[in-house]
Amino acid sequence: MAATIGLVQGQPRAFSFAPGVRSDLRLLQVDETLLQEIVEKGVVVKGAEDEEAVLCTSQRTYAMKLVETTNLQLLVRPSETAAQFRSADSAEPIQVAATSGSHIELVEVAPRLGPLRRLLWERPYGPQDEGEGADGDGDTAMAEAEGPGGRRAAGYTFDELLAEVQASPAELRAALAAEGAVELDGRWRAVEGGYLGELLEMVLLTAQQAGMPLGALRGGELLEALRADGYHPNVVGHCLTVYARRVDAGAAGSAEAGPAAAGDGVWAVDETKVCIHFAHKVLAAARGSMPLQDFTAAWARAVPAGMSPRPDMLAAEALVDGTGPEARISAFPAAALPHEPAERFAALFRRRPRWEWTHLEPYLAGLKVPGQSVEALLIRFARASQPTPDAPLVYSAR
Q1: Does residue 80 fall inside a structural domain?
Q2: Which of these three, 154, 174, 189, is where a domain ends?
Q3: What's the predicted TM-score (pTM) here?
Q4: Is the pLDDT of residue 237 over 60?
Q5: Distance, CA of 257 to CA of 252 (rounded, Å)
Q6: Who's near 258: CB < 8 A, 6+ residues apart?
Q7: Of the candidates 129, 133, 126, 127, which has an alpha carbon nearest to the alpha carbon of residue 227?
Q8: CA–CA distance from 271 to each of 179, 241, 292 (Å)?
Q9: What's the pLDDT tens digit per position in 210-229?
Q10: Which among 189, 224, 250 is the end of a domain?
Q11: What is the enclosing helix (H) or strand (E) of 344?
């Protein structure tokens, strides 16, 4: 930098303020790694009038903190004739083009995904959409009703979601997968839970009728068989990605093998996920809580033959209150809880004022806050107590 503006050690230089000195510029403090990413891939600053602005790279999201400085920073332009100056007498004054009394500091934060869930569930895919696009030509006859901002109510493109959600592209794709969203004709939508569960049961029934073992479902045959019943191939493929995993030798893995590739693969049903589906179905029929003993018997009858439901499958899916013959169970899926730590802890303590760690831990597993461990979140949002020295720790709201 010294050479750029013609500074030589031991030779002072005068400076002057150029006409129209700017004071509206803000310096952005970054490390070399982040600087390189900004130069190569660019960044986007996001934030509505009622939101705190964030800076998103291709992979991460950063909060932008304005840091005031005690010293005025002078921003100067490089001197085109710097190399000619070798003494203070021959050097022109350095011109100050702008001043700044603060800079922006970046702090990595978790993506703010609250709006994503709202947008995906504006018009989820369900029974009302059966038959649309079942021919697989990519011309799904979506409703053209206008939604907020003039966009179609039947889903959003990835770019539209990226513009609305404070997250990087990589974080948004991960969140879409976590939300169980499906892309149909370039637009992302949630899928109604009840409808997806019914489709799962149709997949299992169709596989049984075709003599397919649960560990070797032939995706192509399933898609073709269910297409005739009006099911969109991509939604059937999505169902397979949710409740099964690819096991054929050419598969890159279930995470990479999306709905569009389902017809090319062989799939093995995920016993835990299927059992969880039938557990929720039994609990939904009870319209609330039900005796644990009754639930256990009904759950065992509901799952497909050959599957063995276990209580540990329901961690972060259901809660048991009471003990012995009086114990009752009710659905409480972690997937329905807020993404933000403060909101999630509030929801957890509304449901149960006091939590033992073994019950609380599964509901915190999905919380990912850069720079903060689960232990740090517990200290911030919960209070630990121990009724007796040999009793387990119990957490309550702080």
Answers
A1: yes
A2: 189
A3: 0.79
A4: yes
A5: 7
A6: 237, 241
A7: 133
A8: 20, 13, 21
A9: 999 999 999 999 999 999 98
A10: 189
A11: helix 341-351
Residue 9 vs residues 91, 98, 116, 215, 379: alpha-carbon distances, Å: 14, 24, 56, 75, 52
Same domain, 96 and 125: no
Q: Sorting pLDDT into bands at 50, 70 and 90, what band is 134?
A: low
Domain that includes residue 153, residue range: 114-189
CA 175, 184, 125, 289 torsion-angle sign: negative
Tell me the residue length of the chain.
398
- When pLDDT is averaged across residues 120-127 and rounded to a whole number, the result is 93
The reply to whether 184 and 201 lie within a common domain is: no
**pLDDT score at 291:** 97
Asked whether 139 and 168 are in contact (CB, 8 A), the reply is no
Most confident of 11-20, 45-54, 180-189, 258-267: 180-189
Q: Tens of pLDDT along 160-175? A: 999 999 999 999 999 9
Asked if residue 390 is part of any domain, the answer here is yes
Nearest-angstrom CA–CA distance, 311 and 305: 18
Output the DSSP codes for 112-181. B-HHHHHHHTSS-B-GGGTTTTTT-SS-------B-GGG-BSS-B-HHHHHHHSBS-HHHHHHHHHHTT-
CA-nearest of 148, 153, 158 to 183 is 158
